[in-house]
Here is the input.
Amino acid sequence: MRADARRNRERLLEAAEKVFAERGTSAATEEVAKAAGVGVGTLFRHFTTKEALLEAVFRARMDAAADRMERLLAADDPGAAFREMFLGNVAESSRKSAYIEALAAAGIRVDVTSDATRPRIHATLEALLRRAQEAGAVRKDVDPDDVIALLVGAARAAEHAEGAGGGPAARTRAAEMVLDGLMR
Amino acid sequence: MRADARRNRERLLEAAEKVFAERGTSAATEEVAKAAGVGVGTLFRHFTTKEALLEAVFRARMDAAADRMERLLAADDPGAAFREMFLGNVAESSRKSAYIEALAAAGIRVDVTSDATRPRIHATLEALLRRAQEAGAVRKDVDPDDVIALLVGAARAAEHAEGAGGGPAARTRAAEMVLDGLMR
Amino acid sequence: MRADARRNRERLLEAAEKVFAERGTSAATEEVAKAAGVGVGTLFRHFTTKEALLEAVFRARMDAAADRMERLLAADDPGAAFREMFLGNVAESSRKSAYIEALAAAGIRVDVTSDATRPRIHATLEALLRRAQEAGAVRKDVDPDDVIALLVGAARAAEHAEGAGGGPAARTRAAEMVLDGLMR
Amino acid sequence: MRADARRNRERLLEAAEKVFAERGTSAATEEVAKAAGVGVGTLFRHFTTKEALLEAVFRARMDAAADRMERLLAADDPGAAFREMFLGNVAESSRKSAYIEALAAAGIRVDVTSDATRPRIHATLEALLRRAQEAGAVRKDVDPDDVIALLVGAARAAEHAEGAGGGPAARTRAAEMVLDGLMR
DNA sequence: TATGAATGAGACTTCATTCAT
DNA sequence: AATGAATGAAGTCTCATTCAT
Here is the structure.
């Protein structure tokens, strides 16, 4: 891929993230193209379909999450690392659920789609969880899938709390309460 | 209102709930009308706008939730009542969040809209919460708004867990874990 | 026809005249029914079609015009009578053209439709015109059809002048100027 | 604008003028698109709204009228120029009034809309009128607004006369009679 | 390769007309 | 005979996607 093509791809991804976050995933692709400073044609050359774009944005977020989480594997305190992982993901995931829902509505199962990131996240999460459990910081009866579900839920709770008038502080508060149920 | 008109309204509400749950809130109104066995015109006579329909469905769910919660006020054990309220709402609320999001995307603040149900729910929730706290079953540092945010989050977590392959059992499991953070 | 039925017909005609004048002939039939205080069903029992209603309103105006004109046949001064006829018709005809246009758009030729009023108007107009011409008050080279065309034109000019900001006085002014071309 | 885009815009304008003249301004936009040989989408890309299209057609006619009138400023005989201006406008304006009415019905005041053509027309008309008055060809007591109103009325009269069976000749005849009221 | 004009299916909504009550 | 709920064709407009420039 030529350098300028790669650059356009990057810009489109950023623009998409911004536009979909602000106006919802039903925003027009043309808006995304405009925000990226390119024509629609270019957008469709890079992402064959609106859903492909949505998926790419979602994956980019997942990759970033995976990176963040892997960095925490090096931490000394397993409990603190787990906590930071949880809160960090909630903080970053604000509108991520919207992508999943939009894709689900289009009949695309993100979970099922072949994806190199998924197993990577799963493995990292499992390691962080196991260590925290061995250190006695997290309940023994939860598995990685539980954590993912609660992560999704905490993100949603944070979103709601913030929207209902609690402001940014409410985001953290909701996530902390969910964490309280996991960590002992 | 004539008997047949009321009956159609009821049917439309049911059809809308079903169709929007199955195909997402972006399903065509015509689909809803067809599912209800009436013409589109009838749908629009009852609900002036697609958003009005979405809102009506949302309100119907809220009313049902309020009824369920009020019934629990009569329970003997405040802790069990609170627990039941929480789990019951999660069980019923599967796609409720979708309505809120669709309405929010349309610029309609359901929270702000004048609504007799909202204060009713709030008051009931507050009573259930206070009693459970006085009985020592629930943490003292949570307020009704926290409970609502966690309810929304737990519902989302349950939805995700179920979708990710956990089956119906996973729904309850996720909600229980959130509850564990609230109840002592 | 029963007395109440006739009464409804009358009310509908009045309501239609008012509603169509205020909101244009594209106003909904339901609006007319509401203004008349009856259901749409009643409206359609009396007038099989929206166009039939439009036509009835148009005819009612034509009948009124015919009455006014016939009364002028008894006047002493033929010139004054002609003048009064002309200005009177312009004054009353404000939105009449709208009916004709709406009917024309629907492919209905009002002129052609069998109508007892038309020949009556034509005859009266002819008489008024001939007398005024014989009295030397009106140009000899105009025929009844010319007068009708100029009447329609003067009404339109009056409408425009009024709408353009001239106020009610401008209505008369425009009509007078057209009359000046006819009367010597 | 790209060459093909400008060409389509032109085609749309022509098609709209034709379709609206033949079937009335309530003709479907889809008809206009078909007549222009383009898709509806293209029509709406060029004219955001049906009213915008109507307005554009109206303006195009006004521009053409302004051009015709300006050309007459160079004429030798002021009276003949005024006469030609009047008859020429009536000849060309057949359905123009329909646009104004459609726009008015939609709540759009064409007169008020910022428009470079309007003052241009007004100025030209004023010059033609003043010269004709100074040459003693036109009554001294009429102002440009009167002329415009009479122009609108004469056009309407011509339209009626033609429609009532007089044929094209009747158009001129009606306009001449109105002119007779203005010119001495 | 990038652009943005063109496309047309499909969405929401209105309204003349019919028909059960 | 009156009512007004139901109907569905038709209208306006949007938007993902294609294609000429």
About this structure: The mean pLDDT of chain B is 85. Chain B has two domains: 1-48, 51-182. The longest helix of chain B spans residues 50-72.
